[in-house]
Amino acid sequence: MPKKILIISPHTDDGELGCGGSIARFIEEGNTVEYVALSCCEKSIPPEYPPDILSREVKSATKILGIHQPILFGFEVREFPKFRQEILDTLIRLRNKIRPDIVFTPSRSDTHQDHKTTVEETMRAFKKCTILGYEQPWNNITFNTHAFVSLREIHIQKKIAALACYETQKDRAYINPDFIRGLALTRGTQIEETYAEAFEVIKWVM
Questions:
Q1: Would the pTM count as exceeding 0.85?
Q2: DSSP-assigned beta bridge partners for residue 32
Q3: 29, 92, 94, 152: least CB-packed within 10 angstroms?
Q4: Residues sharing a CB contact under 8 Å with residue 132, sequence separation 6 or more, in sequence order
Q5: What percent of the chain has pLDDT over 90?
């Protein structure tokens, strides 16, 4: 049966980086996928770009993956610990509205302060859901590869194309198509597939 899947992205691009290939596959298979970005990172935007550039980029990126209306919030980048209760309240409202079966969020070993707050409040808000933590090696000193989603070439191509929408992030090493493909090849090798994305099982509900 089709599932309701919620992607929680602390900042625009985190969800695509962590599980963009899986999003493309889930939508291809007829599942309902909702994408939430808690911050559009206005404070981090280079001065040569307009203030709303990341909100425009995330809409273009998620559209390539098959999501036509991402849900965007305005929490201040790098300040999530100060807004912990407001973030929890926001996630609870989303839970009651969307009622997802599976939630994707940063992993518990993610070292970024906004990501840590996001996963902790996700665990509090979504007690009845399966929760999987996605991988972001630049923030993960360790990462437990407990679950895998096998992917095909078309899914990797869509992930790379989606991330290419982030003109503001083009100099980041993790946006590089070779890195994206290389990590997918590594995770695919672990399950004897060509490509895959790996996830930490935070909670599994059957």
A1: yes
A2: 4
A3: 29
A4: 102, 103, 104, 105, 147, 199, 200, 201, 202
A5: 97
Structure confidence at residue 105 (pLDDT) = 98
What does the angle CA 56 – CA 57 – CA 60 come to, to the nearest 5 degrees?
Answer: 90
Q: Strand (E) positions, the chain? A: 4-11, 32-39, 71-72, 102-106, 130-134, 147-151, 195-203
Model confidence band, residue 108 (pLDDT cutoffs 50, 70, 90): very high
Domain that holds residue 76: 4-203
Rounded to whole angstroms, how far apart are CA atoms 147 and 35? 20
The SS3 assignment for 84 reads helix
Domain count of the fold of the chain: 1
44 pLDDT exceeds 90?
Answer: no
- Residue for token digits 């198509």? 177
Q: Tell me whether residue 32 is exposed, middle or buried, using C-beta atoms within 10 angstroms of its C-beta: 0 to 12, 13 to 18, 19 or more.
A: middle
CATH of the domain at 30: 3.40.50.10320
Can you tell me the distance from the alpha carbon of 95 to that of 23, in angstroms, rounded to the nearest whole number?
19
DSSP structure string for 142-160: S----EEEEE-HHHHHHHH
